[in-house]
Write a structure and sequence with these properties.
Order of helices and strands: HHHEEHEEEEHEHEEEEHHHHEHEEEHH
Helix content: 40-55%
Largest sheet: 7 strands, mixed
Radius of gyration: 21 Å
Shape: globular
Number of helices: 13
Structural class: alpha+beta
Strand content: 15-25%
Distance between the termini: 23 Å
Amino acid sequence: MTTDDSEPAVQAPDASRTSASAASRSRPRRKRKRTAAAVLLGALLVVVLAAVAAIVYLGSLSQSFDTNTKKIPNAFPEESSRPSEPRPGTDGKTPVNILLVGSDSRGATGATAESGAPSDQRSDTMMLVHIPADRQQVYVISIMRDLWVPIPGHGSAKINAGLAFGGVPLMVQTVESLLGQRLDHVVFVDFAGFKGLTDAVGGVTVNVPKAFTAGQTSTIHFNAGPQTMNGEQALAFVRERYAFADGDYQRVRDQQTFMKALASKIATPQTLANPVTLANVVNEFSPYLTVDSGFTASAVASLGVELVKVRPKDLITFTLPTNGTGWSTDGQSIVLVNQAATAALATAMAQGTVPQYVDANGLANGN
């Protein structure tokens, strides 16, 4: 992205009782559907989640989602350069990894990058959504945009340079190489869509960690503590980094905070039970999404059904641990890889032991 400087029989005695009994028997099924939709919202974040909830409840919106989202025709690198597909468990399931890429405006350079060609586009926010094979939790792992890593075929550079050097396929290959995990889907989210999405759900209440003024993009001031944000405020909140001593680190934490608050708002009965609101969410935000060709409404909804046992507390967000900041040999300000923590996470993802990794590194409440 280019946010800143770069860039859902027993017969009764009479008819009325029969009707009431049937209605009563139908409630658990509707409740289960609502739970599945709410879980998906928490798992896939923001709009993808809202879209799924709407699709589960209103099948007619499936076409709207598939029509309005832009498609990446060549999202993945050559098969020979990719990690092998994981072996299914006894239930036939494998982990699912989704790369979320944030940007302010895709424009011409973004379209070029998404087509699989090099461009001057750089991703400004990266998040890896890891859904283990047992579907018991969902992990959202932020990857610092300035993380200094090997870019296949291009030496070492900031991880977001992969998009500029070789489009989406190289970006995917870079992340797959970093963590040794195969990516199943790629989703680009234009931050401008946060404004309409937030307004579509009637505002989002966020517990702001620390007071600041979003001077980078506006003059909006945020007090510490809970406050309800409209679309304009939400956009300023997730974009700001210059107001903080640790810059991108706090911006990433704020983005995680907002996404969890948004997911919680979408998961409320007032939202999930309102077809008009759900339709507005899908129609408002889907035009701001660009997805790989396999990430259809049907695929997203199917994943949501598998997540029926997940609860909001099972959505864990943290940032891939780093060794702080430093300088490259050519004078760039960079974020240093924590090789041990990165290798340990890769092993945990491969072995299905991410919960133990999170506990061992104190990441249950973020970092």
